[in-house]
Amino acid sequence: MTSGAWHWAGRLIGARGIAGMLVGLLALLSAPDALAQAGKSAYPYCRMFPEARTVVFLVDRTATYEDEDIARLVRGWEVFATELNREGDHLVIRTVGDYARTSDILFDDCVPSCPPKGFLPWYDACNQNLIAADLQDFVTRIGQALNPVMLKQAQARKNETALAETISLVVSEHRPSLLVIFSDFLEYHLDKVGEADFYRANTTEMNSFYTDLRRRRLLPDLRNISVIGYGLGKELGPPSKPGIQQGMKLNWNQIYRWWVRYFSDAGARSISIETEYRGMTAPVPPGEAGPEYRTSEPLGAGATKKPTGKGAGQ
Question: What is the model's pLDDT at position 287?
Answer without folding.
Answer: 57
